[in-house]
Amino acid sequence: xxxxxxxxxxxxxxxxxxxxxxxxxxxxxxxxxxxxxxxxxxxxxxxxxxxxxxxxxxxxxxxxxxxxxxxxxxxxxxxxxxxxxxxxxxxxxxxxxxxxxxxxxxxxxxxxxxxxxxxxxxxxxxxxxxxxxxxxxxxxxxxxxxxxxxxxxxxxxxxxxxxxxxxxxxxxxxx
Length: 175
What we know:
By secondary structure, the protein is mainly α. The protein has a single domain, classed as Growth Hormone, Chain: A, CATH 1.20.1250. The protein is built from 7 helices and 2 strands. The protein has a two-stranded antiparallel ribbon with strand order 1-2. A hairpin with a 2-residue loop joins β1 (about 25-30) and β2. It is globular.
């Protein structure tokens, strides 16, 4: 029975990796696997990046950049930090990113919906204790929240959205 289950899991994993994709990537962190269309998220973000970053008037603070958060994270802590960052973007960032331009708002909403879907998938794995949080991940996440807390909510949300490419670059690099 265990051999059959192991072969089924191995076959499914191989199929996922060999399956042709349209910009989708499989990110695996420990036993957690999520499928994410980075190309689609980047395209939507690129369409609004200039507008969002133009609204960022605070140049002395960064939410995600070096040396604060995403650099030099242990491989054992990546699952945890991704879980927290997905929750951070869904619960704190996208909720407070509104502009006067309805097209921009629709693009932000579509990115938010994509993140929500990924977050829900990743949450299931995290809840099964397959994703442990070490001290480094907790400290890095606290630093992100501290950076975010240095600004008013709208400015912090816009800055975080403007730094979305940093998160996507990091995810592609480490996964």
